[in-house]
Amino acid sequence: MAESPYVAPSFPPVPDVKPPRDPPMCLRMISPPESYGFGELVYNLVLALPALLFLLFLLTRLRSSVRKLTQSRSHIMATYYSFLWVICVLNLCWCLLEMQQARNHDKETAWNIMSLITRFGLVLLEVSVVVFLSQGYLISGWDALLRTLLFSGIFATADALVKAVYIFGFGIPLFTSQDDAGDWNKWGFWFLQNLLFATVYVVILTLPYTRWRDRLPARPSFYRYVMILFVLNGLEGFGSLLLGFGASFGYCVYGFAGFAYYALYPPLLYTTFLADFLGEQEMQMEDAYYSEMKDAGYFDGDWE
């Protein structure tokens, strides 16, 4: 009986497994990690530290601040002080939730929602400062406050809704990302938003050299505030542009600017508009400073 020819067994082809790539440099600055270790814990503590320290600072000044606001009856200062507290608490909660998101990625939806709420508050404050101070001296404090909150609230709400559509409707992770350099759907959005804000701040910085210079307060602190926000928005926009073109170095630029924005904006707002007003001074010095701010156009007619 003839033997059948030997047929070698066939095996499925071995897939070409590529070794995992290291995450882009500075990606951790804007995205919770895929794994959690000591390095991520240290970074999260650094991220939350500015918000925690500033919140503790506000707590130490709470009694004197409330007393001064009550005595002055300044609706605008009281509103901004209240907003500042809300933003600081949201900022700290956002940092703490990011730690949980880093440990357990099924919390991504909750972290995105908290990111939207926190960013909404920051955008509301940014826009409201510009809107209020651009109204000049023609209307009373209450009218200025209501118009400011209405316009800035509409703008911040529209901004948050667009971001929510991007995240939950189109599935584009605006706040969380894992190696998405080159995705213009995401980075084009951030570039356009930062370009819009940076353009507004450039216009404000040029107003002192135009015939409309008297519509803004003649205080150096206000222009320092505008300059810092212009730089931060410019850096974020530049980082977004780099990432849109696929340059991973953009993570460092965008991440640094984003960290500085969340960490510095509440103290910047406080030192620019509230620090001197709420500082430890004698009542006559406080009244003199309040009159100076009123003459400079911060809240014309606020006592009416």
TrEMBL record:
InterPro entries in alphabetical order: TPRA1/CAND2/CAND8
Membrane topology listed for this record: Multi-pass membrane protein
One example GO MF annotation: G protein-coupled receptor activity
Record key words, sorted: Membrane, Transmembrane, Transmembrane helix
Pfam families: Tmemb_40
Compartments where located: Membrane
GO cellular component: plasma membrane
Transmembrane segments: 41-59, 80-99, 111-133, 145-169, 189-210, 222-247, 253-275
Keyword Cell membrane appears in the UniProt entry: no
Family note: Belongs to the UPF0359 family.
Official protein name in the record: Transmembrane protein adipocyte-associated 1 homolog
Originating species: Ceratodon purpureus
